[in-house]
Amino acid sequence: MRVNVSSHDLKVLDHKHHLHPFTDHGALGVDERRVIAKADGVWLWDSDGNRILDGMAGLWCVNAGHGRQEIVEAVRAQMSELSYYNTFFKTSHPPVIELSEMLAGLTPDHINMVMYGSSGSDANDTILRLVRTYWALQGQPDKKVVISRKNAYHGSTMAGASLGGMGPMHSQGGLPIPGIHHIDQPYWFGEGMMTDMNEDEFGLWAARELERAIEEIGEENVAAFIAEPIQGAGGVIVPPSTYWPEVKRILESRNILFIADEVICGFGRTGEWFGSGYYDLKPDLMTIAKGLTSGYLPLGGVLVSDEIAEVLHRENVEFFHGYTYASHPACCAAAIANLTILKREGLVERVRDQIGPYFQKQWKALESHPMVGQARMVGLFGALELVPDENDLKKRFANEGKVGTITRDHSFSNGLVMRAVRDSMIISPPLSISEEEVDLLIASTRKTLDDAWNDVRKQGLA
Ligand SMILES: *Cc1c(COP(=O)(O)O)cnc(C)c1O
Q: Which Gene3D superfamilies match (predicted)?
């Protein structure tokens, strides 16, 4: 890396040569961008020397916290022993074998095999091909439709974005691809509250949308239902407590595969190893990525039930699919070191029993702020719903997203990374966050809400 490049010069070069993901480049001023230069624990430092609390764990992934030299060392050692080999054509290597055994020990009893890729998106591509192949191998090639949900996030590839339910993503590039059907999401604050149902009734209604879709499409044509246990990028949408039990009931009576996209919920985010554990779900397939390596290196995968694995082990069956960098040895070494840390330090149990409840209590108290309509949190991820009038929670800000952006910008200025989804603020810090750091995070959030509320009123937005 070059040294002695000024912060401003870095920004100029970034502006000139770098196309960013999910970014309105026309609106992004040269000096408006931040160059993150260093990180340790829950802290980031930008190229201007500001210290910022990483309330998003990178992009929901740095579960073990930044700067873990143990992971760096494990990767270095693996790189010098075997920096690359593939797992096609009858070969394997020690780190992928060790990691797969480790994962089988963490997953529900009926899930014991893993197929790897490099990200959550490519894992969901694998899943789409895999579920269709599975049914074809069972003599049911017409069982192809995958039911998903509006406002779900399953990645950015053609299959990932199609499985996902993001309107703006579907508006570009001719998506979704055929064979994906989206039902309504169980979003109480954003949608259910506007109906004449109460929260429990709304949860049942949203679950039964799945049943209605299956009936409409025909069970014989439906391959699978895919869902995040809690929608992450959609806005940390925690379903009503009636939702998952009813979905489970529906799935139990149907011959349809259930895919739990655990890319965010997995590896401790909810205080359990997987979101499926938190809701007692029994998926046939699980998508993993993000917290698998805590983002130290890219690795994703598909966890496969014994029932599906059995079909893939039949004579003369070959799934014609694979990525060059699937189960890259260095990435597997990073995952092993990361999981070792999560286990040794009991970080998952700590989210469930200690730091989670500690954070949730203070987060909930933010509801007393005049701009906060709801503060929700499960494990260590949460959302604040911003509203113009605390006395009428059904009212929303005009020009959706504007207040969220104002609030996010204040948050950054107050030394805290939060993400804005529409007009809600999202938090998902490293699982290693201390009580003292939670206190700092809450203090920054309060100041941010005050600053944003002032602006919002000054601009006549509320
Ligand atoms: C981030 C995410 C993905 C996509 O993972 P990438 O590694 O960004 O491709 C898929 N599903 C969920 C639930 C995610 O949050």
A: Aspartate Aminotransferase, domain 1, Type I PLP-dependent aspartate aminotransferase-like (Major domain)
